[in-house]
Amino acid sequence: MGFLEWLQGTWLGVLVAESLWGYPIFETIHTLGMAMMIGSLGLINLRVLGYKPELRLLDTRQLLPLAWIGFTLNAISGTALFTSDAVYFWDKYTFRIKMILIILGGINAALLGQRVFREAAAGAPALPTAASTKWIAFLSLVFWFGAVIAGRLIAYTP
Amino acid sequence: MDILVWLENTFIANAIRTIPWLYPTFETGHYIGLSLLVGGIMLIDLRVLGFARALPLKSMIGLLPFVWIGFLINVFTGSMLFIYGATNFGPNRAFQVKMAFMVLAGLNALAFDLAVRRSGSSWVAADRPPNFVKGVATLSLIFWICVVTTGRWMAYL
Asked: Are the beta carbons of B133 and B123 closer than 8 angstroms?
């Protein structure tokens, strides 16, 4: 038995696939977690790009807990959704693209955190001057919105 | 209902039926809009309730344009989606409850606006939202979470 088939047979996979409420509940959590992440990470990235300069860069760190909560909710709900139909989802290239975009988004976020928050904490001027840092912030937005779009298109992938 | 049948036979509905990428585009747009709307309103409501305190209240309230843009995107995309499947969505209980929650969210926002006109907004600069503002922020969170939830459940009813 392949790994994907095994996943589908686990209690979680079966629960979500066969119960009436499993899928809708996890899908709803997934959507809300998405809104939390886009909101919090979106604002941090926009601030790095220069939007709302009155916000102190280091202070935007306080948005990170919301991003983490959203990410955790989506990791859990995403796993639940995936296990219910693992073979089907893994077969879809849009799903795999979404996973790649999430990984890229995560790497980007870690990079940004290191540069931006460390720079700001060390007393860097109000706006990060490195163009490369702004590119990271811009790409971050592309990756996360891309993940949203790819996720939505899974259902339409032949 | 006659109007629902009429809507499903409009030029727009026919276009969505014949051009295969239109429905996915409108649906995806609806999710982008919801990310801006709900993501934005979460940040504002949570800030009013004391989350991420270091960020000035006035600045966070200044995120409202994103909320409005998300809302307008969703009014547009939502209308397109509805027109296409009017006879399905119209009688759908989840859809009706979703609309009810949107009305509640709108009334909540209106009540907030009226109250601010009465009592002023000096609490913004002072970062001391009165209890009624905290109440409005809490209701706002609840209503919009319910909108998202009932919207998702439309597919299952």
From this structure: yes
Q: Chain B contact for A54, CB < 8 A?
A: yes
Chain A, 2-31: which have a CB under 8 Å from a chain B CB? 20, 23-24, 27-28, 31
Give the C-alpha separation, A89 to A145, whole Å: 20
A-B CB pairs within 8 A amount to: 85
Pseudo-torsion of CA A58, A64, A67, A72, nearest 10°? 150
User: pTM (2 decimals)?
Assistant: 0.93
- Domain range list for chain A: 3-156
The CA distance from A91 to the nearest CA of chain B, in Å, is 19
Touching check for A60 and chain B: CB below 8 Å? yes
Q: What is the pLDDT of residues A41-59, one digit of tens each?
A: 999 999 999 999 999 888 9
Residues B25-51 pLDDT 10s: 999 999 999 999 999 999 999 999 999
| ipTM here | 0.92
